[in-house]
């Protein structure tokens, strides 16, 4: 006979293979554990409520709402026009535009799925119209969407910080240089593929067109400056920054005369639905974390890894490899909620910088968003480009490799992540 703990593991794997909803995958084994151990089931709602009773989690719905409102208020088009005026004249310029537009939009939405669909709707159509291979257009858009949860503000960094008890402000700041590095690697890939395939150049560079595009997008560009600047200077916390972002975006809607009450209501409703589903998963993860702690799994894991190696780098590689594997089947949020409580003792035992690991952890979660069979961003781009998922993924492989190379560089040179947090936030 299997022990209850072994049956919990078997049940979790079975539910994953059956593609059950993630809240079922997380919740059913935990409830079975309580029942098999004779623990009162009344513990479950206590843990569920206690997990989401964190003020920092208020930032998640606010940043999600700000990103969706940005799409409604024509911000994506303004960002695209600015990026096209900046780099559209280069060979394969629309590929550069897709990366630049995604990077700018990333500093407002914090969501790879929102970035993939919001920016992708415009960039994929524009690239197709100008003779680019549709799969290349989709691949550039998909890989660029990985910048959204890395460039602050980042929804998954908020969830990671809350789970690991790590400064979210430092995580935000730590994502700035990695975001720039990743975008540089993506731009190099676009340049090489565009040269090799002789993709067309766009319109000649024009200072007047750039000035016009910049003036049209100036208020939009102020959004990340206000958010990140306020956090840098200590003017407000990440939670307060999320509320400021929503208020500012609503003001933009008034200035641009884009607010329609029916559309605003629908956006609030869809955001509330998404947040409800997300918070359900977050709350159930609290019960899982209690089960994991009760069985002393983190301590056993730390002891096992310590026997294998004493290298900090190898330990981080093992953690990231597990994240990448889980990313093939799960979204970023459940990976963070399931894995972080188990690996934090390793962070302490090996004296790993929690900001360094945290940013790398979130980046690897993001890489999972572009991989089948469960890649939300991959599905989003395939939808807006009207291409099979397999074709989009294979076209994305060169960008996938470059993302992994940038991740390796950040692993070997921690200062890429830790320099700004150590400099700006005490």
From TrEMBL:
Pfam families: DctM. The chain crosses the membrane at residues 51-67, 104-124, 136-160, 172-195, 216-235, 241-256, 268-293, 313-330, 335-352, 358-381, 393-417. GO terms for cellular component: plasma membrane. It is found in: Cell inner membrane. It comes from the Bacteria. InterPro entries: DctM, TRAP_DctM. It is a multi-pass membrane protein. Residues 10-416 form the TRAP C4-dicarboxylate transport system permease DctM subunit domain. One of its GO terms (molecular function) is transmembrane transporter activity. The keyword GTP-binding does not apply. Keywords: Cell inner membrane, Cell membrane, Membrane, Transmembrane, Transmembrane helix, Transport. Its main location: membrane. The complex comprises the extracytoplasmic solute receptor protein and the two transmembrane proteins. Belongs to the TRAP transporter large permease family. Part of the tripartite ATP-independent periplasmic (TRAP) transport system. This is TRAP transporter large permease protein.
């Amino acid at each position: 006979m299997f022990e209850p703990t072994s049956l919990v593991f078997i049940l979790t794997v079975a539910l994953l293979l059956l593609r059950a909803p993630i809240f079922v995958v997380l919740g059913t084994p935990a409830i079975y554990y309580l029942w098999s151990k004779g623990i009162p089931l009344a513990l479950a709602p206590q843990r569920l409520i206690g997990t989401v009773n964190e003020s920092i989690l208020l930032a998640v719905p606010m940043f999600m709402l700000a990103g969706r409102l940005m799409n409604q208020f024509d911000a994506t088009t303004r960002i695209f026009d600015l990026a096209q005026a900046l780099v559209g004249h280069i060979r394969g310029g629309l590929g550069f535009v897709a990366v630049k537009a995604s990077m700018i939009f990333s500093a407002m939405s914090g969501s790879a799925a929102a970035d993939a669909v919001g920016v992708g709707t415009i960039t994929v159509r524009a690239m197709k119209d100008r003779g680019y291979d549709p799969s290349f257009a989709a691949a550039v858009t998909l890989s660029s969407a990985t910048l959204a949860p890395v460039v602050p503000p980042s929804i998954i960094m908020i969830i990671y910080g809350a789970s690991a008890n790590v400064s979210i402000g430092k995580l935000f700041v730590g994502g700035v240089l990695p975001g720039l590095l990743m975008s540089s690697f993506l731009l190099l890939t676009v340049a090489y593929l565009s040269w090799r395939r002789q993709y067309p150049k766009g319109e000649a560079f024009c200072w007047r067109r750039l000035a016009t595009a910049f003036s049209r997008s100036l208020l939009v560009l102020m959004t990340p400056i206000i958010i990140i600047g306020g956090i840098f200077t200590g003017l407000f916390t990440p939670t307060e920054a999320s509320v400021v972002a929503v208020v500012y975006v609503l003001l933009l809607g008034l200035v641009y005369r884009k607010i329609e009450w029916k559309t605003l209501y629908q956006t609030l409703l869809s955001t509330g639905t998404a947040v409800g589903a997300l918070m359900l998963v977050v709350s159930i993860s609290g019960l899982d974390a209690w089960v994991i702690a009760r069985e002393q799994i983190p301590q056993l894991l730390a002891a096992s890894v310590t026997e294998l190696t004493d290298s900090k780098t190898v330990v981080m590689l093992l953690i990231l490899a597990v994240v990448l594997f889980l990313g093939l089947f799960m979204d970023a949020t459940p990976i963070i909620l399931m894995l972080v409580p188990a690996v934090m003792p390793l962070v302490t035992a090996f004296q790993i910088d929690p900001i360094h690991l945290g940013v790398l952890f979130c980046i690897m979660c993001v890489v999972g968003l572009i991989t089948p069979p469960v890649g939300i961003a991959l599905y989003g781009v395939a939808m807006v480009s009207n291409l099979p998922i397999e074709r989009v993924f294979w076209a994305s492989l060169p960008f996938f490799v470059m993302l992994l190379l940038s991740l390796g560089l950040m692993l070997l040179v921690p200062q890429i992540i830790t320099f700004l947090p150590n400099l700006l936030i005490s």
